[in-house]
Amino acid sequence: EVQLVESGGGLVKPGGSLRLSCAASGFTFSDAWMKWVRQAPGKGLEWVGRIKSKANGGTTDHAAAMKGRFTISRDDSKNTLYLQMSSLKVEDTAVYYCLSYRDSSGYHFDYRGQGTLVTVSS
Amino acid sequence: QAVVTQEPSLTVSPGGTVTLTCGSSTGTVTSGHYPYWFQQKAGQAPRTLIYDTSNKHSWTPARFSGSLLGGKAALTLSGAQPEDEADYYCLLSYTGVGVFGGGTKLTVL
After folding, report:
1. Which chain B positions have a beta carbon within 8 Å of A37's beta carbon?
2. What are A69-89's pLDDT values in tens digits?
3. Residue of A nearest to B6 (CA)
4. Cα end-to-end span (Å), chain A
5. B97 backbone dihedrals φ, ψ, rounded to 5°
6. Which residues contact B97 (CB under 8 A, 6 or more apart)?
7. pLDDT value at residue A41
8. Element (H or E) spanning B92, and its range?
9. In this complex, is the C-beta atom of A109 within 8 Å of any C-beta atom belonging to chain B?
10. Chain A: residue nearest B38 by CA?
């Protein structure tokens, strides 16, 4: 059974840092392209960033609004995706979802986590 | 950063047909934007319906189809069902950086 389980969310003060994790199982994580999207309460989806598989260079792309503050990384030995967030702002409050959507050969799938809530508040 | 635009809300009758569109502030949407369409129901994570303009997943109902139409990406629902009532989001890629549209709230009524 495919599972993506996010963790690490919680309450953090403005200017603080947080690292989200997404533990994957049931598929070949090392071959998967992964992304983070977020959703502020009552709002639409926002693309945070993505990381390719190492077979495709392992490169990352980040949304302009978060570039320099958020960093996506992966540890294929632990089947885990990360989102390191720093200089957090109140407007970063959202549910953060990790998703896996394709592999290195271009085969598409759709694996989703249940999301983890990040609340930035003083 | 580019702005992706969608209709905020649409209503379709059961059994009817509706087209949702996805435009880009940078100009014409092409296959090079790799348009995705997501469906999100209340309290759930978004689910991909369409990827790369018109490709479906195995779970995508046949009544949904994706295309390029009039310079935009389009999601057409033919034969709407009550369970299709949801929020729909398009996602466009700009040299690897994704941008979501604001979403369309689809009511089946």
Report:
1. 46, 100
2. 999 999 999 999 999 999 999
3. A44
4. 39
5. -95, 125
6. A47, A61, A62, A63, A64, B1
7. 96
8. strand B86-94
9. yes
10. A45
Compute the nearest-CA separation of A49 from chain B (Å): 7
Chain B residues inside the 8 Å CB shell of A112: 45-47
Q: Alpha-carbon distance B42 to B31, whole Å?
A: 30
Q: Do B1 and A63 touch (CB under 8 A)?
A: yes
- Cβ distance of A44 and B89 shorter than 8 Å: yes
Could you tell me where the beta strands, DSSP code E, fall in A26-112? 32-39, 45-51, 60-62, 70-75, 80-85, 94-103, 108-112
**Chain CA centroid to CA A8, Å:** 11
3-state helix, strand, coil in chain A (%, to 5): 5, 55, 40
Q: Is the dihedral of CA B97, B50, B23, B13 positive or negative?
A: negative
pLDDT in tens, B45-83: 999 999 999 999 999 999 999 999 999 999 999 999 999
Give how far Cα A116 sits from Cα of A8, A18, A37, A76, Å: 7, 12, 11, 21
Q: Which residues of chain A lie closer than 8 angstroms to B45, CB-CB?
A: 97, 99, 112-115
Give B27's DSSP letter.
B
Q: Is B76 exposed, middle or buried (0-12, 13-18, 19+ CB in 10 A)?
A: middle
